[in-house]
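Dig into what follows:

_____
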Amino acid sequence: MNATSGTVAVYTEASAESHELQEALEAVWREQLSNPASAAGIADILRTSPDKLPVDRPPVRIEPTESGLTATEIAILISSWVATDIVLKALTDLGKDAVKNAIRKVWNKYLEPAVMIRMRKRDALGQRREEEDG
């Protein structure tokens, strides 16, 4: 898979299907935003207020990669609303790298650990592949 500017993370050898992981992600996102402390932390990273975060749309989506169609490789991709939504205008003004880094922080701190707990499988996401430069 070629690294794209919208890729937050890539995992190999996932034991769960991408649609199962996406469902878990959506539930985790709603749970995180319903917790005032988590919502405030996420909003702080994204330079917005908690009430402006869309409850029904996580900032990332989980999809199989091209090489993952026959294997079990999945990518965590920035959702399209992040780059276009007025809510995150402050981040887009900073540039794509700042947006990607902020979304990666949200994924690493709030979403990835909660998805793993929700899936109840240690290898649900698989092994995180080292990030590629560029």
About this structure: The chain is about 45% helix and 15% strand.
